[in-house]
Amino acid sequence: MKIGIVGATGEVGRMMIKVLEEYKIPIDTLKLFASKKSTKRTLTFKGKEVQVEELTEDSVKEKYDFLLFSVAAQISKIFAPIAAKSGNVVIDNSSAFRMDKDIPLVVPQINGNLVKNYKGIIANPNCSTIQMVLSLYKVHEKFGIEEIFISTYQAVSGAGHKAVIELQNQLDGNNETKVFPKQIAHNVIPLIGDLKNDNFSEEEYKIINETKKILNDVTIKIYPTAVRVPVFYGHSEAIVVKTSRPFIDISKIKKAMEESQDVIVTEDILTPIDAAGTDFVFVSRLRKIDNNRFSFWNVADNIRVGAATNAVKILMYMVGLS
Ligand code: 2RA
């Protein structure tokens, strides 16, 4: 296969290269694209150095089996349609197309069927949405979900490589704050993205709207609070769920969650450090509130589960490798 990665030098772009290699995807040609300032770099794939090229319209007019995008939404809005018009399948990690009614928003284990024999742009969901729906889609199938209350504790890598550097610098005593609205080291910030008129944030609306689209159920009521925490890799989520039908015994919720091969339910107390570098969603602190309500802690590597691995799994699903 011929694969192109747009945004190859970013946190997610570099992880896409790593995951393609780890999953032994049969690639004959890998092309890497980034902004002009990054074109002096080479990145390693299967032991070989691959030159990063400047992203131009001609770059994406070439024929690929897949183009994986992980760039700002405004860049995706320009280049992804050009790529798709040339007959390419684009898996886009930005928020640009996620809520477009004609574009599938895909977690392949849940709704991969939407992209069977598909051509065009496919939207990769937001990281904090992916890890939540992976832990809940089987519960929704069996018991129905009426309400979700979720508080997220999101790693700085979700905001990109500059955010990782900013946290490290602040931990080293340099309090320069550019990426986040306030100092993040030794702190938490209850805001991710811009605030909308009703005081909900962009990130919180992503969780609300994307969950309904992926689970194909607009009746689910979702009440999120998205928080940035001084962690490098791994988003955590404290979630309370109300089901439509009583589950009675919490072991039935555990059993439903574990039907997903990507979810591990454990009695251990798992943290972002435990989850970082893996492709699992780890559920712990699972507990019953009443016959229709339960609560749990959910942690996953936001760059892998929440972005790069989900994109590669969409590709694998489409070519019959999963
Ligand atoms: C974040 N979910 O964590 C957003 C985008 N990756 O910053």
UniProtKB/TrEMBL annotation:
Oxidoreductase listed as a keyword: yes
Coiled-coil regions listed: none
Gene3D superfamilies from the UniProt entry: Dihydrodipicolinate Reductase, domain 2, NAD(P)-binding Rossmann-like Domain
EC number: 1.2.1.11
InterPro entries: Asp_semialdehyde_DH_beta, NAD(P)-bd_dom_sf, Semialdehyde_DH_NAD-bd, Semialdhyde_DH_dimer_dom
Pfam families: Semialdhyde_dh (PF01118), Semialdhyde_dhC (PF02774)
Subunit structure and binding partners: Homodimer.
Protein name: Aspartate-semialdehyde dehydrogenase
